[in-house]
Amino acid sequence: MKYQLSACAVLLMALSPVSAQLATSHTPQYPSGEATAPFKAVGKPVARVNGTVLTDRDFRNTMYTMFPYARQHNGAVPKAMESDIRAGAMKMMVFEELCYQEALRRKMTVPPQKLSKAEVDFVARFNNPREFQDYLQQEYNGSRAALNSKIKRSLLIDEFLKAEVDAKAKVSDAEAREYYDKNPERFQVKESISFQTISILPPDPATPDQLKEARTRAEAAYKAAKDAKTYDQFGLLAEKYSDDDYRVVMGDHKAVERSKLPPLVVQAALALKPDQVSDLIQVGNAYTIIKVNKHIPAGKMKFEEVKAKLVQFLEKRKTEELRTALDAKLHQNAKIEVL
User: What is the pTM of this model?
Assistant: First the structure.
């Protein structure tokens, strides 16, 4: 399936007790004309799954989990995304109901202590008892038993998905190694340089005073940076001095192929060892200081270097395949009506 969220997340996130969710007068802040009208859930039936009725509240909560930003706007979503969001929410809502029904058919249970902890954790998400009572009244007509039943349902779905998807999606080191050996082209890399920068960028065009000010700042930045020995030390200076967008990520450009870098940067980088800082590099009216973190030669990445991300990739792919197959299986004999 396209949308993959745990049932417990649907309950604890989509029904998150935040003031924005409870405020019915909140005005959407999407650009005018680009958002749908706020979504008002009143308990109206929207689907029937093997005779079980699902309401617009269930639909709204699923939608909030898939698209949390809508929660801040009473369910209003960008018009361009409306069709995909609502279709995805309906599919997810039906899928989880089918999972729940199958968990009941198998007589799966939730340990009492786990259920009690989930109930306590859920209540603790509210700012105060009054906010919780307002939510309980609005969503469950004041019934604590109805809320606890919903929490239990969510936990059962999670247990079912852990057994049918998560446990089966685990990828061993041997499986990852087999994929690595059979797909060597995926692990070839071109010569690259991993580096950080501090860039001083005067306006264009710039006045003589602005050019002088840029030079002064560049020299100050270089004086502070030349003795930086670590990633964090240089990164903090990038945050302080740099004018480009990389300042918000510690000046880190990650690994960039040598062929895609300006010749002056390549020349400076090749003269540096890892953790060394370049002299002040002037390109036109701009100034750059680089710190090399790693030289990456062309060739095939070692298995140990890619194993963690490869296992993550394979498990994600396997999870998607398992959920798709499970969804199809659960639908085989199911009677589903969208109302």
Answer: 0.64
User: What value does the mean pLDDT of the chain take?
Assistant: 86
Whether 94 is covered by a domain: the verdict is: yes
Query: Under a CB-based contact definition with an 8 Å cutoff, are residues 41 and 56 in contact?
Result: yes
Per-state percent for the chain, helix, strand, coil, to nearest 5: 55, 15, 30
Whether residue 146 sits in one domain with residue 50: yes
Indicate the Cα dihedral angle 154, 160, 166, 168, nearest 10°. Answer: -170
Count of domains observed in the chain: 2
| Nearby residues of 286 by Cβ (< 8 Å), 6 or more positions away | 199, 200, 201, 202, 214
CB atoms near residue 194 (< 10 Å): 17
**CATH assignment of the domain containing 280:** 3.10.50.40
Q: Domain of 58?
A: 7-170+317-338
What order do you get walking across the sheet with 286-296 strand by strand?
A: 252-257, 192-200, 286-296, 281-283
**pLDDT tens, position by position, 93-149:** 999 999 999 999 999 998 999 999 999 998 898 899 999 898 888 888 899 999 999
Q: Please name the amino acid found at residue 55.
A: T
Task: Assess whether 255 and 330 both reside in one domain.
Answer: no
Distance (Å, rounded) from C-alpha 111 to C-alpha 106? 15
Distance CA 260, CA 36 (A): 43
Name the token pair of 236. 């903090």
CB contact at 8 A, 268 and 274: no
| Domain harbouring 18, CATH code | 1.10.4030
Radius of gyration of the chain (CA): 27
Same-domain pairing of 231 and 325: no
- Find the distance separating the first CA and the last CA of the chain, reported in whole Å: 22
Task: Give the C-alpha separation, 128 to 130, whole Å.
Answer: 6
Pull the structure tokens for residue 110. Answer: 């939730």
254 and 326, same domain (yes or no)? no
Residues in CB range of 211: below 8 A, 6 or more apart: 202, 285
Is the N-terminal amide bond of 68 cis, ω within 30° of 0? Answer: no
